[in-house]
Amino acid sequence: MSADNSNVDNAKVDNAKVAILMGSQSDWPVMKRARDVLAELGVASDARVISAHRKPARLHEFMDEAEAAGIQVFIAGAGLAAHLPGVVASLTIRPVLGVPLEAGPLKGKDALYSIVQMPGGIPVGTLGIGGAGAKNAGLLAAEILALADHGLAQRLKDWRASQAEGLQEIPQD
Amino acid sequence: MSADNSNVDNAKVDNAKVAILMGSQSDWPVMKRARDVLAELGVASDARVISAHRKPARLHEFMDEAEAAGIQVFIAGAGLAAHLPGVVASLTIRPVLGVPLEAGPLKGKDALYSIVQMPGGIPVGTLGIGGAGAKNAGLLAAEILALADHGLAQRLKDWRASQAEGLQEIPQD
Amino acid sequence: MSADNSNVDNAKVDNAKVAILMGSQSDWPVMKRARDVLAELGVASDARVISAHRKPARLHEFMDEAEAAGIQVFIAGAGLAAHLPGVVASLTIRPVLGVPLEAGPLKGKDALYSIVQMPGGIPVGTLGIGGAGAKNAGLLAAEILALADHGLAQRLKDWRASQAEGLQEIPQD
Amino acid sequence: MSADNSNVDNAKVDNAKVAILMGSQSDWPVMKRARDVLAELGVASDARVISAHRKPARLHEFMDEAEAAGIQVFIAGAGLAAHLPGVVASLTIRPVLGVPLEAGPLKGKDALYSIVQMPGGIPVGTLGIGGAGAKNAGLLAAEILALADHGLAQRLKDWRASQAEGLQEIPQD
Amino acid sequence: MSADNSNVDNAKVDNAKVAILMGSQSDWPVMKRARDVLAELGVASDARVISAHRKPARLHEFMDEAEAAGIQVFIAGAGLAAHLPGVVASLTIRPVLGVPLEAGPLKGKDALYSIVQMPGGIPVGTLGIGGAGAKNAGLLAAEILALADHGLAQRLKDWRASQAEGLQEIPQD
Amino acid sequence: MSADNSNVDNAKVDNAKVAILMGSQSDWPVMKRARDVLAELGVASDARVISAHRKPARLHEFMDEAEAAGIQVFIAGAGLAAHLPGVVASLTIRPVLGVPLEAGPLKGKDALYSIVQMPGGIPVGTLGIGGAGAKNAGLLAAEILALADHGLAQRLKDWRASQAEGLQEIPQD
Amino acid sequence: MSADNSNVDNAKVDNAKVAILMGSQSDWPVMKRARDVLAELGVASDARVISAHRKPARLHEFMDEAEAAGIQVFIAGAGLAAHLPGVVASLTIRPVLGVPLEAGPLKGKDALYSIVQMPGGIPVGTLGIGGAGAKNAGLLAAEILALADHGLAQRLKDWRASQAEGLQEIPQD
Amino acid sequence: MSADNSNVDNAKVDNAKVAILMGSQSDWPVMKRARDVLAELGVASDARVISAHRKPARLHEFMDEAEAAGIQVFIAGAGLAAHLPGVVASLTIRPVLGVPLEAGPLKGKDALYSIVQMPGGIPVGTLGIGGAGAKNAGLLAAEILALADHGLAQRLKDWRASQAEGLQEIPQD
């Protein structure tokens, strides 16, 4: 991930508009789908492993730095009792998107409930469980940014059209 | 609701930034919570009963008109096999927020799955089931609009602070 | 699949009485069980990959062409937030049968709810999750066509009798 | 219900094209929605309380009589471990539609699984839980009959159009 | 299984006190655990593949023969929409024990509901999903037979005591 | 309930063949359905409120007394984490039937799992959740006793026939 | 609740050994059962409405004050996406007990998963959903404190014995 | 495990403060995570395979011995209808922690309900399903013991800090 996995305090951060947060290194293969679709659309993102529970002070600090550095949308993925998206949402009034991850025996149903059922007052826009959800979180973040970026809006339209074209109409045995 | 329930083709529409869609008149008491919190924050919204299935052509037409009229964010609520948010999302690249409604014997769990488990490519940011979800959809729409509206961002901060102050610390018997 | 996977606009289409629709090429190994049992019963079918969301205009167009070409029954399979059967049903008054596919961590329970819990007014006759459901969709389509086709009715009776005979009564170690 | 609730062995039976079966008298208020929508569409139906388990011989007998009397489509509703639709389907090659009823603490989820998860070979086209499902079973039966009845096909188109017109676009406080 | 898998109409049947029924040959590796524990306890059983739906007349016939041949307890295992135990129970007043089998994406939860939620009047004593359930069905059948067989009662007591002794108290790394 | 709710140590106990156990007085209105159907069939039963957890020594003592007094079948009902049936089953080799009760927010699904999923070695024959399950537990107990009681077997046959006759064939508006 | 609902900074706080936290005033009627059973056992507790999300800084501050004031065990109740117990647990190494509350359409199943499925490293001892869970949280807190308080251990033994005595053995009609 | 898996009646037992109980040898690889984290924190534990159902008298005896030998906290893990933690809790007023194990087709959801939904009066502090739950049970036991052991409290603080430091902030491709 090297160069494009910039930290908040370096040059790349000035360009990142989306932060992608996750509770554990092992979540990255799934959460990377958010970064990948954002990169396809020309949107820089900043990915972090940061726990809701293990370092609460560090998370507060990160959120302040991230907003100052220009992050517009936060994407947070978590499994099990998935508190990260909700805790992030309690620390910002910028849009927060949550991705329930498929971990443990309940296969992400616990994470889905822990993210989507936030009480009134602290919204988290929740996407589907696992990889499709992570990809859609990237797309929704791009849709949000595109409201103020005509070039990105056009790239989103092109991207969606290319998806439709990509459909193979005739199944092959 | 009279005056503030403006239609797309009248003066109010020029100001509405959020469309609130639902499949049936009976969904309104819940979905109204999205409008109410948006109104508290000074954001005009346009509410409609429009079915994903009963008048597909009318929905396509509405989406075109709505985007032309300046709608930036779509909120769609539905119960049971809740297709409205996903169908709306397939017709626009503007952000779509989905609210699963508590209808029928499965109490909104069917609607939650039908909205949140969208396949990769067509995102719907899903909120919680029922009234808390509708209110949070309004708040998330406001958070999205506030990225380009400093006054609204300040009102959101004030609103959230007032919520925190409103907490009664001492339970009363 | 070549020759027997005819398109609506060619000779084969004139004979196809059943259309088998699915959202993705990867659904074909399961949905093929509908085609296979229909073929056993001498009923030609037309199979398509066509998305409810990615190309809505193409789906409308296809439905018109299909009805004109003589399709009597539509079978639609989908996973996750499975909207395809319901959207197909909203575009026709011919019988639509839905097959929930086992995709993602919820194993088709999400697809089942998204298909079977259609609101009153737009019916989808839903079969079981996965391969047994696809096979039964083919059989139910044949039962519907057999109401007006005595030869097919006889072949259905023979098919079912052969199934019963096929039961091995004595388990072997 | 008087006159139009004719028995198999009387004059009305000659006209009934749909049988509506249920396991208990208490299921009637819900299952009546199938009959009502069929009646709106001009289709006569024959409704019966008949148990899958309590009188198996009587059910076999009824099925033979019903087919001889011209029943084309069977609708069966049941709650709990809902075996009636599957047992009916095992006794005919005519289309069988199942309606899971909301009974007991599992609220119809048990009935849904007991109806929709039929093994490969004996299809039951399953509708949603409860009243909306019963209504949709009536509509799907009419769609099946309309394949061979142009007048009914036209009445179905008119019925659906009238549903769409009935949508109130503007919610009222 | 050869010799001890005797049919109702041969010598072995005279001794069999328990019938073990299943809907498909593929259920045998699990259902065999019922036979095995019965054999350990010295109880002969008669195992059959017989479908609730594919050959209803054959099932009725079998039940009559089985009762005449001295079968006291029926064990029936089935997966998916598991109707076999309930249908068997509707054809006898001898005790029927049901074993939900783990088949398909719902992993036996559908079978559990389809067996245990029988309506009032037709009881099925249901055991756990899969192999432990099959074994326990064998044990419960033996407990029932032991009410009139002191030797079997003693063997059951010995069997249970041996199970307790078999517990290894100290886990080993 | 007075006279027929005899205790183990009085005359009635000598006749009771079935013990009906429950964890709390509040379970009685549901569990009474087991006693009622047994009484209809002429089988005396002994009903007790006795906790699996609060008085374990008393439960052990009761089980010894009950077997000595001639109890052949134990019926145990419990809600929530419903351990009573399993604990009873661990203390006897006579047949134990379990009734999951609908208590608390999970509506008996927790009790169903806690009763039916017993590990291999300690069987509990589980009936449906709530009143229908309690009634069926009484019937299954009677079926077990009828294996050695021809009069009871005949009364069971008569009872079931009367149930079938009781079915009203024609629904009334 | 007046006098015994003391704040951390007053005299009562010096005696409180257990803090009872909840996210909303409306949770009090259920959470009060923890305080009531603690009071029966002679353990003072300090009850607070304090949100995991709305005032994160206040929660951190409260935790520091509470530990300094001698709180040994924290009980936290929450509904929906119930983050409060987990967030409390991330701020202390003293034992935290969680009570899932029955709120919204999922009836506390969402809260259960959000509390019990904490990732490895931050434990929350979870009790049952609703009132029985709140009472048991109070009892478990007392059991923990009793490890270092012989008088309390004796009162717990007496309390449990009195519960067992309270069981009514004979159900009354 | 050799030396540190001491039995209650030997020298090691004098030091063990935590007992780790499980129903079957096969549960050990998961339950060992409780012992491992306790060992990291310098807390000796005593691990046993002991069944709730197969040897009830032995369990009662063990509990008495364990308390006499100084066990302060009991951890019990079980799968399926997981009664062990609740039965242990009914035999002591010392804190009991329950770990639902992922066994069988319901993947531990049955065990979770069977442990966490204990009726009011007999508390079990329940941790998550499987390995993370076992580890957290060890940590919660240590937190309880640390209330009276300043050295352990400090080691817990260090342990948690080391966990936070261990978080890798930058995901690697």
What would your notes on this structure say?
The structure is a homooctamer of 173-residue chains. The first copy, chain A, has 173 residues and is an alpha/beta fold. Chain A is 46% helix and 13% strand. Chain A has seven helices and five strands. The first copy, chain A, has helices spanning 11-15, 28-40, 56-68, 84-90, 109-116, 131-146, 150-166, and strands at residues 18-22, 45-49, 73-78, 96-100, 125-126. In chain A, strands 2-1-3-4-5 form a five-stranded parallel beta sheet, sandwiched between helices. In chain A, helix 2 (28-40) runs parallel beside helix 6 (131-146) and helix 6 (131-146) packs antiparallel against helix 7 (150-166). Chain A is globular, with a radius of gyration of 16 Å. Chains A and B meet through strand 5, helix 6 and helix 7 of A and strand 5, helix 6 and helix 7 of B.
Shape of chain A: globular
Radius of gyration of chain A: 16 Å
Strand content of chain A: 5-15%
Tell me about the largest β-sheet of chain A.
5 strands, parallel
Structure annotation, total helices of chain A = 7
Order of helices and strands of chain A: HEHEHEHEHEHH
The strand order across the widest sheet of chain A is 2-1-3-4-5
Catalogue the unreliable spans of chain A.
1-13
Structure classification of chain A: alpha/beta
Of all protein chain pairs, which has the greatest interface, and how many residues does each chain bring to it?
A-B, 39 and 39 residues
Mean pLDDT of chain A: 89
CA(first)-CA(last) distance of chain A? 38 Å
Task: Let me know the number of strands of chain A.
Answer: 5
Oligomer: homooctamer
Helix content range of the residues of chain A, please? 40-55%
